[in-house]
């Protein structure tokens, strides 16, 4: 151990006769005299049996603890919650998903603050605990490393890859009579074969890649599968790295700069990631005091081609990308073409460009990542749309879509359940624009994802024939002509609250417009008649969340007062 005292906070416990009772508690969990001379490292584990994404993280946390101890720290594991978006999807439970991000961030910050840890390794798996960990890291600004638990293997049915989205789309196919109950059951049983996060370029893999691009995880961590033996080695390396960060006095806000967020957005656009990245990256940026807006996403989108043929709109999954060079291979390609800031600092103590020197380029014969000279799309697929329906903005994902514009009559629903029932009863016709409102951050509350209904649209062969707009959000597994995050939301009187059945709505990705063919005078007349419905929840987690949360355009954070 170096001569430098690395106990930047824990020294208040480790030294002095008046802290003898504090140390007595730690001796009960295994601390010795020697441990009190070392920096205390928190290992924030999101282990849980409620989802395959996190079912293996207990072992990863132990490996991180071993690494931190080997690196000269005194580590302790603590846990925080996770919820499964896949299990919560399509019913009341989804209202708790996005709020769980804040609960996770708050709980990690709380433990770290109370215990006076000097640094942290945070290990995440499912969609919300990843940004939750990063928000906590940003708020605390203590030396930190994030570790991703890894992607799931694809399921197999008839020698073809399937995944959780296959199961959601099978519901629509069953409803239409294209498959029978036995086939639906087969898909259900084989879609998720073991540990790891949903396999396509969905929200978990998107955020893992973005965090690696920001320099906050071990290089290569984001694309290595959950079952890969290297995962344990990554966790050990993360434990050692956080102590090294203490020695070098490198803090998260030294790494998570505006340029680092631009790298994250660049990689997200190139890979065709989830629209949830808008919410989460803006929220993480807020935690470190970086001014990141929807306009930044749009500025970068115009410069970065979409080059990854990954699910949900493409053919391949993250494990396939891992096999041909992974996220580091993609970043080497982007750096070579001047699309990344290679001089950004990372948790290794080296720059992004220096880290990438250790990795080979993508395999020459691979088909997952196209050349930048022949991309799937010349610009990024994640669009910001504005107009008289979304003055503050909305987001959509246009990868894999031939249709770029649609004008159709509004079919207005005040809940996902009502819209789903209409769809399953064949009351939605080609050309309709399904509107689901009062499901934003406050109105939901919790801004529930619409994977269930959007997957049924695909399963009923209505993809590209109808569109769906909402002040809620979409899963990273969603594909089709869908627009979410409409701001301001209906609950606070946003224009989406003023829509009436049959209003003509235009969605145009070329002009980046989301509008309704109703005059301002008529909208104002409707506004005068409109009154806000009561909040669905007034107490408990969702009641507190609804009262505090900001709009989606500001990351749906709860500490922006």
TrEMBL record:
[2Fe-2S] cluster binds at residue 53. It comes from Natranaerovirga pectinivora. Binds 1 [2Fe-2S] cluster per subunit. This cluster acts as a Lewis acid cofactor. Belongs to the IlvD/Edd family. Its EC number is 4.2.1.9. It catalyses: (2R)-2,3-dihydroxy-3-methylbutanoate = 3-methyl-2-oxobutanoate + H2O; (2R,3R)-2,3-dihydroxy-3-methylpentanoate = (S)-3-methyl-2-oxopentanoate + H2O. SUPFAM superfamilies: IlvD/EDD N-terminal domain-like, LeuD/IlvD-like. The active site is at residue 475. GO terms for biological process: isoleucine biosynthetic process; L-valine biosynthetic process. This is Dihydroxy-acid dehydratase. Homodimer.
